[in-house]
Design brief:
By secondary structure, this protein is of the alpha/beta class. It contains 13 helices and ten strands. An eight-stranded parallel barrel has the order 1-2-3-4-5-6-9-10, surrounded by six helices. Helix 7 links the parallel strand 3 and strand 4. Helix 4 runs parallel beside helix 6. It is globular, with a radius of gyration of 25 Å. It starts with a helix and ends in an 18-residue tail after the last helix.
C-alpha cells in the first residue's frame, strides 16, 4: 500500500511539473518557448565567444588609429604635427603607433573631374614610411567621419549611370598610386556601407559593393581588403563580397537624442562582440577586427567637441573611462583594436594642457609592445609588431 501511495505521489509531482513546463495557455507556451530559445542562443553565443577568445589568445595585440587631417584642423591643430606626434616613439613624447587607417576622400583627392591632388595622402604615407608604420587605406565613396559620403560638387548623384563610372575611375587612381608603397598594409572598402541611419549617403546597392571589391582585388591582389559591418547588432554578414577581413565598430556611451535626452551606456559584455567575431570565423573562416573603439567623447545634441566644456566631455570620456574602454576592447578577444579619437587626445594635450588621455593610450601601446615581444615568433601574424589607433 505504501509503494502504491508513493507511486501516485511521484506521478502527481510529474504531472504538476509538466503542467508548469507546458501550460494549457497558448500564450504561456509561447513565452516559455521564446525564453528557452533565448537561453539556448545566449549559452551557444557565450560558448562561441569563449572559443574565439581562446583561439586567438597568444596572438599579437595591435592598437591602431584612423587619422584624418580635416578633423585635426577642426581642433585648430596642425595635421602634420599631429600625425608626427602619433607616430613618434614614446621616448620623444609620441605614442609610438605603428599602424594607421588613412582616408582618401573623393572630394579632396579629385576636386575637379580628372584632376587629382594626392599631396595630402603623399605626406601622410611619407610619415608612415619614415616611422616604419603600416597603413590601411580607406577607399570608396563612404569613408570615416561625417558626412560619411564625401562627394565632389561636380558629381551628379542623381544619375548613377554617370557617377558610378566616375567613382570607379577615382578609386582606380587611388589604388594604382599607393599599391606599391611600402607602407601600405591593405584597404578598407566603403566604411560601414549598409548603415543607412547615419551619414549623407543615398546608394546602398550591394552589387556596387561587390563590383568595387572585385575591382580593388584585381587592381591589387597583393593586399588585403577589409569590409566593415553596418552596425553592432546580432547578425552575421552572409552576403557577398567576402573580404579578407571583417571589421566592427564598438561604441559604449552615447547621447540618446530621441527618448531620454541623456547619456546611455550599452550594457553589452565584451563576450557579445567575441561571439560575433566567432560566428563569423566559423561561417566564413575570416577574422574580425575592431576598427572603431570609442575613445573620444560623444557630444549631446550633435555639437562639436570644441563646443562643449571639458566637464561635459568627461561624462562620456575621460582618462579613467578610456583605460577601462581599452581593457573592454582587449576582452573581446579581437587582436586588432583601432581606438577612435587620436586628434582629440592630442588637442587635449596641447590646447587644454591635459595629457591624461594621451598618456593612457601611450601606456597601452607600450604594454602591448612589451606583451608582443614575449610571444613566440611562431605565434606572430607578421614579422613586424604593429600598434594601431583611430581618430
Amino acid at each position: 500500500m505504501a509503494k502504491k501511495s508513493k507511486s501516485l505521489s511521484v506521478k502527481k509531482y510529474l504531472s504538476r511539473a509538466w503542467a508548469w513546463l507546458w501550460p494549457r495557455s497558448i500564450w504561456r507556451r509561447i513565452v516559455l518557448v521564446l525564453a528557452a530559445a533565448v537561453l539556448l542562443f545566449t549559452a551557444t553565443s557565450y560558448g562561441v565567444a569563449e572559443w574565439y577568445i581562446h583561439k586567438h589568445d597568444g596572438e599579437p595585440l595591435v592598437l591602431g588609429t584612423t587619422f584624418i587631417p580635416d578633423y585635426a584642423q577642426s581642433f585648430g591643430l596642425d595635421p602634420q604635427q599631429t600625425l608626427q606626434a602619433i607616430l613618434e616613439p614614446a621616448s620623444q613624447g609620441g605614442l609610438g603607433m605603428k599602424q594607421l587607417r588613412l582616408v582618401s576622400y573623393w572630394n579632396e583627392v579629385e576636386p575637379q573631374s580628372g584632376v587629382y591632388d594626392f599631396s595630402q595622402l603623399d605626406w601622410e604615407f611619407a610619415l608612415a614610411n619614415r616611422y616604419g608604420a603600416k597603413v590601411d587605406l580607406s577607399v570608396g565613396l563612404r569613408q570615416p567621419r561625417w558626412p560619411e559620403c564625401h562627394v565632389p560638387t561636380w558629381v551628379n548623384m542623381n544619375d548613377k549611370a554617370q557617377w558610378e563610372p566616375q567613382l570607379y575611375s577615382f578609386m582606380t587612381a587611388v589604388v594604382n598610386r599607393y599599391k606599391t608603397n611600402p607602407a601600405l598594409g591593405g584597404y578598407e572598402l566603403e566604411n560601414e556601407y549598409f548603415l543607412k541611419v547615419f551619414g549623407q549617403c543615398t546608394n546602398f546597392d550591394r552589387s556596387r559593393l561587390v563590383s568595387e571589391f572585385n575591382m580593388v582585388k584585381n587592381l591589387d591582389p597583393n593586399h588585403k581588403v577589409i569590409v566593415s559591418r553596418s552596425d553592432n547588432w546580432v547578425g552575421i554578414p552572409v552576403g557577398k563580397p567576402t573580404p579578407d577581413e571583417f571589421a566592427i565598430s564598438v561604441y559604449k556611451r552615447v547621447w540618446d537624442a530621441t527618448i531620454t535626452h541623456r547619456y546611455f551606456e550599452y550594457p553589452l559584455p565584451p563576450w557579445f562582440y567575441a561571439s560575433l567575431a566567432g560566428y563569423e570565423e566559423l561561417l566564413s573562416g575570416k577574422d574580425m577586427i575592431i576598427h572603431e573603439l570609442q575613445a573620444e567623447p560623444w557630444t549631446p545634441n550633435g555639437l562639436a567637441i570644441t563646443q562643449i566644456s571639458t566637464a561635459e566631455m568627461a561624462k562620456s570620456m575621460n582618462a579613467n573611462i578610456l583605460q577601462k574602454r581599452i581593457k573592454y576592447g582587449e576582452d573581446t578577444g579581437m587582436r586588432t583594436i583601432d581606438l577612435w579619437g587620436a586628434e582629440w587626445w592630442y588637442w587635449m594635450k596641447v590646447d587644454k594642457h591635459d595629457s591624461s588621455d594621451w598618456n593612457v593610450v601611450k601606456q597601452a601601446v607600450a604594454q602591448a609592445a612589451a606583451q608582443n615581444q614575449r610571444l613566440e615568433p611562431t605565434a606572430l601574424k607578421s614579422p613586424q609588431l604593429t600598434l594601431d589607433i583611430k581618430s
